[in-house]
Amino acid sequence: MADAEDIEPVVCDIGTGMVKAGFAGDDTPRAVFPSIVGRPRHSGVMAGMGQKDAYVGDEAQSKRGILTLKCPIERGIVSNWDDLEKILHHTLYNELRVAPDEQPILLAEAPLNPKANREKMTQIMFENFNAPAIHTVPVYENYRLPHVILHLDLAGRDLTTALMKMLNEGGCCFTTSADQEVVRHIKEKFAYIALAYEQESAMSESSVAEALFQPKMVEMDDAAGIHETIYNSIMKCDIDIRKELYGNIVLSGGSTLFPGIADRMSKEITALAPSSVKIKVVAPPERKFSVWIGGSILASLNTFQQ
Question: Which CATH number fits the domain 4-142+289-300, given the four candidates 3.90.550.10, 3.40.50.2300, 3.30.420.40, 3.40.50.150?
């Protein structure tokens, strides 16, 4: 076994849409691929082609025409542990090419991840991958305010499903899991956030992403918009730190990549917040990897494994 001091911990952020994995201290993840597992739709369809029972990530994506694609994570929470294990195996052995029994591993998790899920993940890492140490960390702030965490049950996949429905109503025919991946690419390439949505046409490219601010557009009538959720979270904090929080709203994650989202967020929160406070919304260019970068910094500290 290599000297532990010479081994950089592995950092993994397995999200609903994408897996980000790499080594502590790096600026960006070494491996980024879709959090999907694909299985042949029909037995024997890939006979003679080195058929496997399951394909992961980019390989599943490239064969999506003959596979059924599934994601083992729903809204940040693991829903299929067998498929998650396949993703972990692919990440460690094929993408990073490491021996997990020699690597400390940091796993980022959703802030409201159930305790049972954390225990199950720990069991898999120790028993199936023989990891020497696993650190499961909710990486979302430098310090924790767990009582103000609010959850908006709306994610990028919901927007993809809504766009799929719109396209089908317009005469297209998107029905399979492979079709859903095509629609996701359309969404990511063309959708944007309008500063003044009421001035947009009903079928503009902004109509799908608008659901982040108006969840009722995807039949979530009782849900607050993303701006209202942020406002409500800040208002749960001590009054002495609210001003600082209003001035440090940092966007992160794949669903914050829509053009125009920072300006719209600033406009909407300004309308909700007291007129005396200054609103600042920060949209870092690397925000797709913000959670992973936070984990990379944390795992590179000398105190991390102590």
Answer: 3.30.420.40
